[in-house]
Amino acid sequence: MKSKEEIIHSSIIKVTHSLDLSSKKLTDSIFNFLPLSRVIDNSLIKNIDLSNNSIEFLCTKSFSDCNSLFTINSIDLSNNKINDEGLRNLIIRNFSTNRNYFTNLTTLNLKSNKLTHIGLKHIYDSKTLSSQISSLNLESNMLGNEGLKYLSLCSFFPLIKTLILSRNSITSDGISYLSESRSLGNLTELYFYGNEIGDDGINYLTQCSFLTKLRILDLGSNNIKSAGIKSFSKCIFLDKLEILDFSYNNIESQGISYLNDCIFLINLTKLDIKSCNIKYGGMKYLINMKYFYKLNEINLYDNKLGYYGVNYLLKCNFFDRLVTLNLRENDLQSSGISPFYERNTVSQIRTLNLSSNNLLNEGVKTLFACSCFINVSILNLSTNSIGVKGMKYLSESKIFNNLTELNLSSNNIGEEGILYIKDFNFISKLKSLNLYNNKIDKKIEKQYEEFYNFITYDYF
Question: Fewest C-beta in 10 Å: which of 164, 180, 328, 437?
Fold first, then answer.
């Protein structure tokens, strides 16, 4: 059995310029066995991965006493137990020597630790972290609004492009602090998923006129309602946006109507509005979207669209440009597939998710005859009560000949239905077929898995 010191040495040797100590169950005591300073000082290491361990104080003596930290480009410390004092230890060398040892640091990942606003105050007070940082991940900590206050005051992040602040108990007050920042003008990606910024937070966002380069904005699960979308329509400086996420916000159909006023979304390619309670009434408003010139991916998961929602979707100007369409959990039933069957023109859709729609055998029979889906290569039909007949319909389909990935997990295929696999017209192209939870005997599952190397039984 390898000693802890041998584990570290072997990890260093494996990848040139990288020190990979992720998921080694390390604690701070590991550095009593082998000082990290000696490892770095005698190497040309540029990337350090210490993620998924139990590090708490960042080995004050070993790490902060290192003389070659200026060589490091990226540090991954995600999923540890680092608290505010631990973060202070990371920069303590700079405190004591008044010298910046992180000159070349461009990526710092502190996701899923125990940092509060005090940790960000340490960063602000030190004023020594690299001005070259382009990516900062602070997701799943306890920063709160005060943390955002100190972050917005940091004037030494002029090149930061990616800022991840998801799940940090940030409210509208935090966005208010952000609007006063003078050093985040180069941001291209901003993630706020899982906070509580609400409609008032969106109103403050309209004052962040320095976000002119933003390409990705994640506002999912933030207690935003239709009033917040109305305020968002005033963010005319966001005309570079390519990806917009409003998922898990109760914006309803009225919120979709306000998206019509977002004249700046001319470069949007992906819109995520899953679980927004828009129903088929909201889809009616989507028909009138005038500015989605480049939209090719839309996530409509869990919106209670039903048959009428699909009808409206097919009338949207952007439908013919869609490459990815997610309609999971929309109570489509077999009738919700018929509008696709009636459509004559071929769509560009490559990835189609129809999971959990109670399609039954009759629904998939209609689906497998839909000529508009001839280009689909990835298809998810999990949890649709598909049985033996459904497998027979699939084996007879002349439409889905380009499938490379098919998810049929959690249906009722059984041992009789699995026999139809050999008749699939697309079997030569298939790379993955998920048959998890289909009432198939374990011995037969194993036999088919050994015979067809593309079969999996993965839980999704």
Answer: 180
Number of alpha helices (DSSP H) and beta strands (DSSP E) in the chain: 19, 17
User: Distance (Å, rounded) from C-alpha 37 to C-alpha 52?
Assistant: 21
Whether residue 121 is contained in a domain is answered as no
Alpha helices in 134-235 (DSSP H): 144-153, 172-178, 198-205, 226-232
With 70 as the cut, is the pLDDT of residue 62 above it? Answer: no
Residue with tokens 């300073």: 37
CA 174/CA 273 separation, integer angstroms: 24
Helical (H) or strand (E) element with 364? helix 360-367
- Half-sphere exposure at residue 428, Cβ-oriented, CA atoms within 13 angstroms: 2
Q: Residue 417 belongs to what domain range? A: 332-460
CB 64 within 8 A of CB 35: no
CA atoms within 13 A on the CB side of 404: 5
Predicted confidence (pLDDT) per residue in 78-115, tens digit: 888 888 988 887 776 544 445 555 667 788 899 999 99
Using CA atoms, how far apart are residues 147 and 311, in angstroms rounded to an integer? 46
Structural tokens at position 380: 């998810």
Percent of the chain with pLDDT over 90: 62
Which CATH number characterizes residue 448's domain?
Answer: 3.80.10.10
Q: How many domains does the chain have?
A: 1
Burial 250-282 (b: 16+ CB within 10 A, else e): ebbbbbbbbbbebebbebbbbbbbbbbbbbbbb
In which element (H, E) is residue 190 found? strand 189-191
Within a domain: 377: yes
Both tokens assigned to 418: 């699995």
CB 155 within 8 A of CB 180: no
111 near 137, Cβ under 8 Å? yes
Residue 87 DSSP SS3: helix
Nearest by Cα to 108 from 75, 85, 139: 75
The C-alpha angle with vertex 148 and arms to 144 and 150, in degrees rounded to 5, equals 120
Does some domain include residue 254?
no
Query: What pTM was computed for the model?
Result: 0.89
DSSP structural state of residue 83: B
Q: Is residue 350 part of a domain?
A: yes
